[in-house]
Structure formats: C-alpha cells, structure tokens
Specification:
Enolase-like, domain 1; alpha+beta; DNA-binding; 42% helix; homodimer; 3 domains; 12 helices; Beta-Lactamase
DNA sequence: CTTAGCACTCAGGGGTGCTGAGTGCTAAAA
DNA sequence: TTTTAGCACTCAGCACCCCTGAGTGCTAAG
C-alpha cells in the first residue's frame, strides 16, 4: 500500500489533534478541520488503511485512532510543521539564560530548571568535559596559625583552593621555594602525568616542604578529576503530574523515580551520538523505563572542550514541534553565551572547611 | 467530662492503628489489640465520649473514628511511645552524615536529601547565620596576563576567591602594598562597617591600586552578605506519591508545588521560635497550604553562630514517634559533627569564571 | 460499670442498562 | 474509479440500584 499525500495529511491531523487533546481521534473530528474537504467516511477509509500500515492504532473497536510509535516517527521526521517561537517566548528564554551562572554544577542545575520551565516538562541537563584541563599555576598562602591555602589556577580559568593544616613548621620563604618548585614541575601537565614517579621526583627536590607535596598533589589530581567528570541535573519531575496520561499515581511515581539522577547514569554516554536536536520516540528510547515516553534532546557547546546537552522527557504525545523549537533555541543561546568573548572577566568561588 | 486513663489508652490505640492503616478505626479493631480487655461496646462508649470531647472525628455515621488535630496534639505531647532507633537505622544515618560536606549550600541540599531518605517523606533543611563573620585576611595573587586573584579568608575558616581583570598595569610590589593596606584597614570588620566612608579612606591611601579597591570591596561585601544569608533546600517531594492520602493527583500536585518553590520562604523566620524537636499538627501549621499536613522539625547547631534546621512534611497521620526519633538523632549527629575538634583540617573550594 | 443484643446507617462493590462516539461495510452518486 | 450517505454494530463510560458488611448508638440485663 502506498502512503499517498492525502494519507500523510490525515496522519498529520491525527497526531496534531492527539497532541492537543490526549484523546483518541475520530474520523469526524478530522473532517471538521479546515482544509479537509472530505466526508468522514473517506477519512475512515484512509484511517483504516493507515492502521493496517502500522501508523495508527486503535485502543478498542469503537474508539478513535491513536498514533503508533512508527506514526510519531514519521510525524517528527517529515510531517511536523515548524513551530515559530513567539517574541515573548524567546524573550523569556533569553532573560532566563542571562542570569549569571558561576560554577559548572550550579549552571547545570539552573539550566535544567530553566528548560523544564520553558517546556513544562521534566528536563535533564548534562555537561561533560574530558581531559584537556591542566593546572596553570600554584600559589601557596600562609594562613595564620600553622595552615596554608593552596590556590590552583586551571587552564579553564577556574580557580580552586583548599586549606591545609601544616604538619611541620614553615615560614614564608619555605613556601616561596616550594611554590616555585611546584610551578616548575607540575604545571601544564595532563592528569595522567601525576603518578608516583612525579611525586617522588618532586619530593626529592622539595626540602622543608616535602611532607606537603603528597597532600597538594592529591588535591591537584582530585581537582582535575572533577574537571573531567560529568555534571548532570534533573528538574521538574513533578510536572508530569499535570499531564492526563499520568493521572495514575503509580505510573507517575514509576516515571519519576526512573528520572532520578542515579538511574540516568547511563545517559552521558549517549551524548556522543547526539547531533543537533534528536527525538527518541517511545520504544526507541535509551532506557527500558522510558519506553512509553519520548525524549527530545539537543547538544550545545560550552567552549574549553566541554559539551552540554539538554533534554526533556514527556509523553509520546508531546508537542514535538514546540518542544524541539524551544530546546533548539535554548541550546543555541547557551552556545552563544559560552562563546561570547569574555567580558571584563571576573571569576568567583567559595570554599568550605572540612574534608 | 474527664479524660480518664482508659480514655487515653483508647485514644492512643486509635492513633496508632490509624497511623498504620490510614483507615478509620472501628471499635472492634481496638478490642482485638492485646492489653485491651473490654468489649467493643465499652470501647464504643469511650470512643463516643472522645468524639464529643473533640479528640476523635467520624467521617460519616457508619465509619470508624479518625483522630482530630486536637487528638494528634495530645498524642504527640503525652501518649506517644518512644521510638527506639534500631542499630541499623542509626548506622545508616551515621554513614549518610559522614560523607563529606564541603560548602554550606551543598551541605544543606545533601542533608535534605538524607533526611528525606531516612524518613521516606519530603524534607526541608535550612542553615542560616546572621552576622558575626568577618574577613580575617586578604591575599592578592598575580595571575598571569593582567589579572589577579583575590583570596579572602573568613573568620569562619571558609576561603573564597575571585578572579579580577586588572584595569591598570600592576606589578608584584604594587600588589604587596595594596594587600598590606587592605589587611590593615578592612579585616575583622562587621559587614556594616563597609560603607562609602571606608571606601574613600582606603582609596586615598591606595596609590597605584586605587582603582581596584571598589571592586575588591564589592566582592568582600558580597561575600559577607552571602555568609549572612539563609540556605534552604527541599528534597524528596515526590515521596508523598507513595502515601494513600495522596492517591489523588491533584492533591499531590498542590502539596508538591507548595513545597517546591520558595513558597517556603517564610520558614527560616520560624527558626528562632523552634527549640528541640517540634511537631506542628495540621491547622497549627506555618502556612495555609500545609494545613492538612503535619510538620516535624528540629534545630541543630553548626558552630560559628550558625543554626540549622531539618524538618519533614507529611500527612497528619504520620508515624510521629518514628519520625521524631530519626529527626532528633539526625540533628544530634549533625551538631556533633560540626562541633568535632577539627581533624587535620583541610578546606576546599572551587570557583567558576564569569560574573 | 460492663456487656450482649438489636436496629439503624451508609460507603463501596458488583451488576444492569442506556447513551453516544466511533467503526466497517455496502450501495448509490459523482 | 473515487467519494459519500446510510445503516447496523461495538463498546467505554456513566448513572442507577441493590446488597453487603462494617460500624454505630441505645437499651436492658448481668
């Protein structure tokens, strides 16, 4: 059987209506659409064939039709009308993004929240960077009674610090020597270079501060490791409670728990395969738990070799056009924001006390 | 009418059973309890009187009884058996707490999550400190091409830093002079002392670095302000979905949103009135939205003049004994942890880039 | 003061029947 | 050949009703 233009038109109408109403769509509803100059009988015939071809499904004999996963696939790939963001929408997205975002982890959280808000669906945001970051510079500051602050400046322009209690007595000049040594031997190295070998070499030349070297090195490795890791945040899980398909609490609960960060641990791995905006319909999905939902995700760039991803999870019947439009716009704006030639640049950070 | 011992016993049984089953409790169910050597008729009489006295309520004529808010009040104040934490429970709480918690905001989040997990209810965690923190020390570090890192060490032992691009050329000795000046004039001052007056005075003596002073001072004020603020986190909102009273999605959603947003902004203010563990039953509650739930909260100490609070929100029918036990234990452990004479102390922090 | 007994109430579950939206098929119209 | 009108059929959802059983209050006897 062939997929004629008219069949496509009907299919599209069914999906559109179903997205709007979340109810099976009957032939009559279709005929009432503008631009649909056929009788309900004709539509019925077409729908019967679309059902036979697997694009539509029928919950029970005397109900209307519901798009199948295959139907959705076709819809997002070919039929969906482009959704144009209104000025209000772009404005609200922009103002949301423009709030300052200091640290990567905070940023990820905030983005997730923003995306969720913009789409009214649960959202996921991931940022990951692997390798490439090095320590550009060490500074040691004497901090009163027997402790020092180690300040690391990273190639990514982030600055981290740590307070270390001194195991031995040291004075300002000792510190100067030690920091010169560190800057000479341990800067601009990839994380893999920090091994026992390096430690030994540095300690041999360290003199008075030798006992500090392992602690500092551990801190350095820790920091680089953290840089390398993946940050992920989920927000707005409870938004699904507003959707008719999740009136059933059990269903909602199942989905919500499967959206928890731990169960999405596998997601960052998918990141590499994504390009542009991608839609995963129902069973095509990443994880089994999500198999009767759809996921829309987009990648964006964060400079410094970092990559980000934002995505939303929703019912298969979500408004793909709108969601993809918002998501793409969001991703674009974020990319732009990170690419922006840095303003009078100022970085800021806090540190607690305690290990 | 008098509240005899037997009436109390009956009331207690009703509450206990209702906590377990979430269903109205009938006279027969009570007689079946061990230690209840009366017939159902007697119990019925007692229950009728308890109802008349306002401790119990009857959803409809032919249903069992449900505790009223007053009844719950009496229960938590007098009748409730103490719940003893099992070794497993204390162990899991301890191990949860012992994970390191670096920064205050992260800490607050983590605590909320832990409490929620321990009680299987939505949890709130607040940490607030007002005043008292000062800057103990300034350090300026030259950071390559025309920028410096300002490092503030606070009286609370926290260390914060910020990268500032230099508006003018400065060398190491300029910085030394400036930092000496800052340390001489701006340390150990309460936040209120940072006014235009001080700024002017410092700038007059600053020489080469004068143009930096406003930026640094702004950063200092910002930092102190942040120290002074309140951190709050909510976690586990969706746990209510597991409770029979929230099978109704609309109800659940209402509660969740009233927990979610900073609709709880007023809560920190309550903190001062709390002492020890406190139970708010139904209509006694803080905010109108929570009026048919109960809140249990406990205060704890974080040293440095900081105060913390943890609390959970749940149905009026929650297991007060268990929840208060867990919460108190949690609070105690936290207090202990923060009071602990600092180990080989090491503090750590990160900083982003960007303002 | 306690308890057995009895009449009464009423929420909730299970059947029954109706309604209306939707279908497929057929035969007539275009 | 394609479209449409008409008709018989299906079935989820709702309203209705009845019945059951858990629970009650009251009374009178122990």
């Amino acid at each position: 059987m062939e997929l004629t233009e008219r069949k496509k038109k009907v299919l599209r109408s069914v999906v559109d209506l179903y997205i709007r109403t979340a109810e099976p769509v009957g032939s009559k509803a279709i005929t009432e659409l503008p631009d649909m100059n056929y009788s309900s009988a004709t539509i019925r015939n077409e729908m019967a064939e679309l059902t036979a071809m697997g694009y539509l499904e029928q919950p029970h004999t005397s109900a209307g039709r519901v798009p199948s996963a295959v139907g959705y696939r076709l819809y997002v790939d070919e039929l969906m009308a482009e959704y144009r963001l209104s000025i209000d929408e772009t404005k609200s997205i922009n103002s949301a993004i423009e709030e300052k975002m200091n640290k990567v982890d905070k940023m990820v959280e905030k983005v997730a929240r923003l995306v969720s808000q913009a789409t009214d669906l649960p959202a996921i945001s991931v940022a990951s960077r692997c390798g490439g970051v090095t320590i550009r510079r060490f500074d040691l500051i004497l901090a009163g009674v027997g402790s020092i602050i180690v300040v690391l400046m990273l190639s990514s322009d982030e600055v981290v610090n740590k307070l270390i209690r001194l195991p031995v007595q040291m004075d300002e000049s000792d510190l100067k020597i030690l920091s010169a040594l560190l800057n000479a031997t341990m800067t601009d190295l990839d994380i893999s270079a920090f091994d026992g070998n390096l430690l030994e070499r540095v300690m041999r030349s360290a003199g008075a501060g030798a006992s500090l070297v392992p602690v500092i090195m551990e801190f350095a490795v820790d920091t680089l490791q953290k840089q390398c890791g993946t940050n992920m945040a989920v927000a707005g899980q409870m938004r699904i409670l507003g959707l008719p398909e999740y009136r059933d609490v059990d269903k909602a609960q199942k989905l919500i728990t499967s959206l928890d960060e731990e169960s999405l641990a596998g997601l960052p791995a998918v990141l590499n395969n994504v390009n542009g905006t991608q839609v995963l319909v129902g069973p095509e999905n990443v994880s089994r738990e999500l198999k009767d939902t759809s996921v829309v995700m987009t990648k964006f760039d964060i400079g410094d070799g970092m990559q980000g991803m934002i995505g939303v999870v929703g019912p298969t019947r979500m408004d793909y056009a709108k969601v993809t439009a918002r998501l793409s716009y969001f991703a674009e704006s974020l990319s732009k924001m990170f690419a922006k030639p840095e303003q009078p640049q100022i970085a800021e950070g806090t540190s607690g006390k305690e290990e």
